[in-house]
């Protein structure tokens, strides 16, 4: 197994970033993320808000060069494990997120993690459900933000489905793919309603594999029981993102699963579910149960 330490930081997905490590197809890589930006805020006391810098909070660890990956290939990122520190945090930043105008004073809360539970307040805890908020590959040119918007090859999707046991596929834009990740969460409600999850530092262990001949327009997620297609709208047009997610699901069922157009339409009508990603853009998922794909 390869390990990429947290000091190998990026603040954007970039095709010119020097790889930290080069790995073979199917390699397992452990990528660590840093708690330092938040620790600085916690020590700042009442001055934390003036020092809050989202770019530092959402730093990436990487990149990893995958031997054999070429533009047009798909890179499958299988999430094997996510480990957190023994603490996490949450914050309310006025005018940030859907609840940014709520009558709540700004806060930065340190939240302990014990025995698989996050203590929100004395006597109130929720289970740790770790996931990766920001991950992906480098663009063909220029750079892509780790904040907003997410792109087909990588970005800040904030999808609760990117958790241990899932595999997310990305369309490679450059040789080697150049995979990075960051923005680990100890827990997050679907859609990251407040704009800040139960954030944490830690390490994610992934298997990086090449899949050829997979016609990806945007990422795709595979779990043990469902297949998810993803619609994206940088303009935060949820209707457009919903339409793209459903059309990609239809294309997957017909082109890759061999269903007729009518059969695909019936399956979507009967069993497709929709979910939302985080607030960085309009991110909509459409999914169907795997068991129905074998029927």
Describe this entry's structure for a reader:
41% of the residues are buried. The chain folds into 2 domains: 2-211, Sandwich (Jelly Rolls), CATH 2.60.120.580; 225-293, Acetamidase/Formamidase-like domains (Endonuclease I-creI, Roll), CATH 3.10.28. Helix 4 packs across helix 5. It is built from 6 helices and 22 strands. It is 17% helix and 40% strand. The chain has 295 residues and is of the alpha+beta class. The strands form 4 sheets. Strands 1-5-18-7-15-19-20-22-21 form a 9-stranded mixed β-sheet. Strands 2, 4, 6, 12, 14, 16 and 17 form a 7-stranded mixed β-sheet that branches. Strands 8-9-10-11 form a 4-stranded antiparallel β-sheet.
Note the main attributes of this structure.
single chain, 295 residues, alpha+beta, Jelly Rolls, Endonuclease I-creI, 2 domains, nine-stranded mixed β-sheet, seven-stranded mixed β-sheet, 6 helices, 22 strands, 40% strand, globular
What's the arrangement of secondary structure elements?
Layout: E1 2-4, E2 9-10, E3 12-13, E4 21-23, E5 27-32, H1 36-43, H2 48-51, H3 54-57, E6 60-66, E7 74-84, E8 87-92, E9 107-114, E10 117-121, E11 124-127, E12 131-136, E13 144-145, E14 154-156, E15 167-171, E16 179-187, E17 198-199, E18 202-211, E19 220-222, E20 226-233, H4 238-256, H5 261-271, E21 273-276, E22 282-289, H6 290-293
Parallel strand pairs: 1-5, 4-6
Antiparallel strand pairs: 2-6, 3-13, 5-18, 6-16, 7-15, 7-18, 8-9, 9-10, 10-11, 12-14, 12-16, 15-19, 16-17, 19-20, 20-22, 21-22
Helix pairs in contact: 4-5
């Amino acid at each position: 197994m390869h390990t990429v330490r947290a000091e190998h930081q990026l603040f954007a997905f970039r095709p010119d970033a020097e790889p930290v490590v080069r790995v073979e197809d199917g390699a397992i890589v452990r990528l660590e993320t840093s708690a330092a930006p938040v620790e600085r805020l916690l020590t700042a006391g009442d001055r934390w808000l003036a020092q809050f810098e989202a770019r530092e909070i959402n730093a990436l660890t990487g990149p990893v060069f995958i031997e054999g990956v070429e533009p047009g290939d798909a890179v499958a990122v299988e999430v094997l494990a996510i480990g957190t520190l023994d603490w996490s945090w949450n914050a309310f930043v006025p005018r940030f997120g859907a609840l940014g105008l709520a009558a709540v004073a700004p806060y930065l809360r340190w939240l302990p993690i014990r025995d698989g539970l996050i203590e929100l307040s004395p006597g109130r805890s929720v289970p740790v459900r770790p996931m990766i908020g920001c991950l992906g590959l480098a663009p063909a040119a220029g750079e892509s933000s780790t904040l907003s918007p997410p792109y087909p090859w990588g970005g800040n999707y904030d999808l609760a489905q990117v958790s241990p046991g899932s595999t997310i596929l990305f369309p490679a834009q450059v040789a080697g793919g150049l995979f990075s990740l960051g923005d680990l969460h100890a827990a997050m409600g679907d859609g990251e309603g407040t704009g800040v999850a139960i954030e944490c530092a830690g390490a994610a262990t992934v298997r990086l594999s090449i899949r050829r001949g997979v016609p990806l327009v945007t990422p795709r997620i595979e779990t043990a029981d469902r297949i998810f297609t993803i619609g994206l709208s940088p303009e935060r047009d949820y209707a457009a993102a919903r339409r793209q997610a459903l059309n990609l699901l239809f294309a997957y069922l017909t082109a890759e699963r061999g269903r007729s157009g009518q059969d695909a339409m019936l399956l979507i009508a009967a069993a497709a579910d929709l979910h939302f990603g985080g607030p960085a853009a309009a991110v909509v998922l459409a999914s169907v149960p795997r068991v129905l794909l074998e029927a």
